[in-house]
Write a structure and sequence with these properties.
100 residues; mainly beta; 6 strands; Replication restart protein PriB; primosome; DNA replication; NA-bd_OB-fold
Length: 100
């Protein structure tokens, strides 16, 4: 038996790509996106520039909001990571986002 563990991610990133708003077989709005993050952090006492591109997906009202955002706009995204059944890399499932 597995125990419950936290799977929460908060990421400040810009919207690099947004797919067309689509609907799941159950009729739920959905949108795919690619988010890009860049920052400078200190790791092991050294300053380091970090860049990351993340695939993301949103459903429902969050998908409808995300589909209206401008490319390049900066947001603070909250959600969880999941690997699709046919994929190798985790995808951020966006549960909410707000202006950073």
């Amino acid at each position: 038996m597995r125990t419950a563990a936290a799977n929460q991610l908060v990421l400040t990133a810009c919207v690099a790509e947004i797919g067309a708003l689509r609907f799941t077989p159950a009729g739920l709005p959905a949108v795919d996106a690619r988010l890009e993050h860049e920052s400078t952090i200190v790791e092991a006492g050294q300053s380091r520039t970090v860049k990351a591109a993340v695939k993301a997906v949103a459903f429902g009202a969050v998908a409808e909001r995300l589909a209206r955002q401008a490319l390049g706009s900066l947001w603070r995204f909250q959600g969880f990571l999941a690997t699709p059944g046919n994929g190798k890399h985790p995808v951020l499932h966006i549960q909410d986002f707000q202006q950073d």
